[in-house]
TrEMBL record:
EC number(s) recorded for this UniProt protein: 4.1.1.15
Domain of life: Bacteria
Species, as recorded: Agromyces mariniharenae
Protein name according to UniProt: Glutamate decarboxylase
Entry's Gene Ontology molecular function annotations: aromatic-L-amino-acid decarboxylase activity; glutamate decarboxylase activity; pyridoxal phosphate binding
Membership in a protein family: Belongs to the group II decarboxylase family.
Entry keyword annotation includes Lyase: yes
Catalytic reaction equation(s): L-glutamate + H(+) = 4-aminobutanoate + CO2
Length: 456
């Protein structure tokens, strides 16, 4: 008897499942939704386990209430502020909360926005710096050609994109063994009248360390006293701006430092939200040139908007507000402290192994990095260890450092909410086991390893 209803056919024998799933052209006919779901679901089974991805800073876990809220709101478009005025209002609540966390001097004279992620937020911060510099130069009757932006060689790639896309010369302060962080040294050699600003990293992606904001500001004060150049600062707090307010509340890095004009962060990193949402806040309205802001209709009036993206999800903004309400200051502190405790546990364990020496230990953001001790072995390298851990399911990247340290290879672990102490103990056991395996080799590994992995 011929079956008339495809739904009655056994699973994996239906049209689509019984043939190839590698569609590079749209199929001629439709298929059952269950069949289409299974094909896509099975294809993604080859992805890594997100919870075991210790390369990414991006959040991989939220609770069931957040999942429910996400499902309720995934059809809302953040750009449609007139159609979704409540979501627009919640966006403003969020950046005002961040302005308060980051010690904006006047909570009534502040402006911010959500973005699709911290990379877009960085570009908005850079655009504001460039436009302010252009206005000042035109007012003084000077040329607006050849703007430059100063940053550490350890910046995230989005800053290279910004300089490329928006015609700004990128001037690096190279990291070195003597100065592994940009600390103000050498700034006087690269600052000039065309400098639109200095970017300081609150959480270097290579190592997790904070660059010393106050030292950089002090050096810029010295430069201004000698040259008259008043150079503003932007803080790239993609990770650290959602950690420092809770774990290092007395550390001065934010709007308490007068040169800091803008701060960005990633809501989907230590902001504890699913990807993708980012945030940027300016210390006052004057810091964001008005000619970069567009007015949109909102609740019978107008609302300012400043973004590179147009249509984008509104659900993550609601999830950020949910996190703020659900956790409060105490909850964020508890979660970030738990992540840091795991990082310190793991870094201590790695540091005890004869093969390694720590570069950072997770005492800034919950991230740490290590390298092979010089001369320890000629049989294997950190790429081999990364490969061995990947066999066990762990994604732990190995990659070269930047600047004058580019000849040094390191490994890094990002400890996020969801990496429990139990999982950390399993990981530490596997690191010990695989290191012992590699140390027992009598001959060098026959291949160079899997090579540098994506670590930003």
């Amino acid at each position: 008897m011929v079956m008339q209803d495809e739904a009655l056919e056994p699973t994996f024998t239906r049209e689509g499942e019984a043939t190839t799933a590698r569609y590079t052209r749209i199929p001629e006919g439709a298929m059952l939704p269950d069949t289409a779901y299974r094909i896509v679901r099975d294809e993604t089974m080859l992805d890594g386990n997100a919870r075991l991805n210790l390369a990414t800073f991006v959040g991989t876990w939220m609770d069931e209430h957040a999942d429910r809220l996400y499902k309720d709101a995934f059809d809302k478009n953040m750009i449609d502020k007139d159609e979704y005025p409540a979501t627009a209002a919640i966006e403003e609540y969020c950046w005002r909360i961040l302005a308060d966390l980051w010690n904006a001097p006047d909570r009534t004279d502040v402006i911010g926005t959500s973005t699709i992620g911290s990379s877009e937020a960085c570009m908005l911060g850079g655009l504001a710096l460039k436009r302010r510099w252009q206005h000042a130069r035109r007012a003084a009757g000077k040329s607006t050609e050849k703007p430059n932006l100063i940053m550490s060689s350890a910046v995230q790639v989005c800053w290279e994109k910004f300089c490329n896309y928006f015609d700004v010369e990128m001037r690096f302060i190279d990291t070195s063994d003597e100065h592994p962080l940009m600390d103000g040294t050498g700034l006087e050699d690269v600052v000039d009248e065309n400098t639109i600003g200095v970017v300081v990293l609150m959480g270097v992606t290579y190592t997790g360390a904070y660059e010393p904001v106050t030292k950089v500001a002090a050096k810029l004060d010295e430069i201004q006293a000698k040259t008259g150049l008043d150079i503003p600062m932007h803080i790239d707090g993609a990770s650290g701006a959602m950690v420092a307010p809770f774990l290092q509340p007395d550390l001065e890095w934010d709007f308490r430092v007068k040169r800091v004009q803008s701060i960005n962060t990633s809501g989907h990193k230590y902001g504890l939200v699913y990807p993708g949402v980012g945030w940027i806040v300016w210390r006052n309205v004057a810091a964001l040139p008005d000619d970069l802001v567009f007015k949109v209709s909102y609740l019978g009036g107008s609302m300012p908007t400043f973004a590179l993206n147009f249509s984008r999800p509104g659900a993550q903004v609601l999830l950020q507000y949910y996190r703020f309400l659900r956790l409060g200051r105490d909850g964020y502190t508890a979660i970030q402290q738990a992540s840091q405790d795991v990082a310190r546990y793991l870094s201590h364990g790695v540091g005890e192994l004869d093969a390694f020496e720590l570069i950072t230990d997770g005492s800034d953001i919950p991230v740490f990095a290590w390298r092979l001790k010089p001369g320890h072995t000629d049989k294997w390298n950190l790429y081999h260890l990364s490969e061995r851990l990947r066999i066990r399911g762990w994604l732990v990247p190995a990659y070269p450092l930047s600047g004058k340290q580019a000849d040094q290879t390191v490994m890094r672990i990002v400890c996020r909410n969801g990496l429990s102490r139990d999982l950390a103990e399993d990981l530490m056991r596997d690191i010990r086991t695989e290191t012992a395996y590699l140390d027992a080799l009598e001959q060098p590994m026959p291949h160079p390893g899997i090579g540098p992995t994506f670590h930003h």
